[in-house]
Amino acid sequence: MQVETTAIDGVVVLTPQRFGDDRGWFVETFNAGRMAAAGLNMVFVQDNHSMSARIGTLRGLHYQKPPRAQDKLVRCTRGAIFDVAVDFRVGSPTFGAWVGIELTEDNGKQLLVPKGCLHGFVTRAENTEVQYKCSDIYAPDCDAGVRWNDPDIGIDWGLTDEPVLSGKDRVQPFLREVQSPFTWEAPR
Q1: For residue 140, which phi and psi values (nearest 5 degrees)?
Q2: What is the pLDDT of residues 94-153, one digit of tens each?
Q3: Catalytic residue among 63, 119, 132, 138, which?
């Protein structure tokens, strides 16, 4: 497993090794021991799977408040997405900054989005499927978000048309309207 750091502390790109032959390929998408050896000590308790039929479907920017905050390990198993994490930890030197990476069924990359970061993605192909592990269960009373097109964050989603959005994502508050429940802790 290859581990690449990003400009945001704790947000990493993981690329598991694929083993191929004339039948196709095999990949170990998660291994707790390898994750721990890389200093990534999370326990995942829920797997999610979404399918977005249309190109330009945008889901985000989401987070779950404490006490049900979630680390997420995201991968695209069909199609392609532009996956984004935004630092939402008060006191972080990169608060409000974002990183994005293309995740596709072909490149096999995964994005680890730690607690305290907003998460969202936009589809680049029809019938795109995304699967992700979460370190806590979904809790509707802790579900929250920030507007996908917040000008203070300035994410370049690469869109040429208006995205396909849920009603909830159309009306999320802007970053300046939200008090983050997360505090940054300097790495040791």
Answers
A1: -55, -35
A2: 999 999 999 999 999 999 999 999 999 999 999 999 999 999 999 999 999 999 999 999
A3: 132
pLDDT above 90: residue 25: no
The CATH number of the domain holding residue 65 is: 2.60.120.10
Determine which one of 62, 63, 119, 138 is catalytic. 62
Torsion angle of the four alpha carbons 96, 88, 188, 83, in this order, in degrees rounded to the nearest 10: -80
Whole-angstrom distance, CA of residue 180 vs CA of residue 88:
6
Alpha-carbon distance values, 16 to 2, 123, 134 (Å): 6, 22, 18
- Known active-site residue 132: yes
Distance CA 44, CA 105 (A): 22
* Angle of CA points 101, 104, 108, to nearest 5°: 95
Residue 123 belongs to a domain: yes
Q: Using an 8 Å Cβ cutoff, are 154 and 61 in contact? A: no
Provide the domain count of the chain: 1
With respect to residue 188, please indicate whether it lies within any of the assigned structural domains. no
